[in-house]
Task: structure prediction
Amino acid sequence: MKKYLVLFFAIAAFSSCGSNTSIVNSWRDPDVTITQEQFKKVLVVALVKDEASRRIAENRIAASNPVFKTSYQYLNAASQLSKEEKLKVLQDENFDGVVSMRLVSKEKETTYVPGTYTGMYYGGFDGLYTGMYGYGFGNWYGMYSPNFYDPGYYQETTSYMVETNVFSLKQNKLIWTGTTESQYVTDLGQTVDAIMQAVVKEMRKDGSLPPK
Result:
C-alpha cells in the first residue's frame, strides 16, 4: 500500500471508536482525490491563538505518522514573512500537502434534566401474615416501600465547530474541507483524534479516499 494511503489510514486507526464528534458538512474538489496526490510530507497547522493548545493539537496528529510535520517547527521563525514567502519556505522544505484545523465557533447551551422518582423495596415476605415473626428486620421492613426523589438540574453543554482543510501545495489549491461538531469535550487530544476519525470516514464516503 502506498505511503499516501498509509498516511490517512493511520489516522483512523489512531482514533477512538466512540466519539461525540460528527461531520456537519463537507466539500471535495471533484477533479482531485487523495489517491491522486502523492503526499510524502504534510504540514499540520492548528489555527488557534493559544500556543499550548496549538502544539497539543499538532503534536497529536503528527504522532500518528512520520510524514506529518508540525507547523511550529517550520513557520514560527517565519511568522513575519508574507504569504508568498511562507509558501516558498514550504516548497524549499519539500512539503506537498497541508492539513489545517481552525475553530469556527464555540457555543454553550443550557438544558434542564428533569428529576426522577424511584420506588425502592427492601426485603419481602413469602406471605403477608404467615411467618412474619421468623424473619429478620430487613424482611419486616419489606412491608414498606420507601420512595426517593432525585431533583432535576441544569446542564451546560459546549459545542465546538472545527473546520478541517486539506490543501495540495503542488496544485496550490484546496482539495477537501469539512466542518465537525464536538460536544462534551474534556480532552483536547482525544477530540483531535475524533475529528480526524470523522474526517477520514467522510472522505471515504465521498470518494476522496478509497473504501476501508
Q: What stands out?
A: Helices lie at 3-14, 51-62, 71-74, 83-92, 137-141, 188-205.
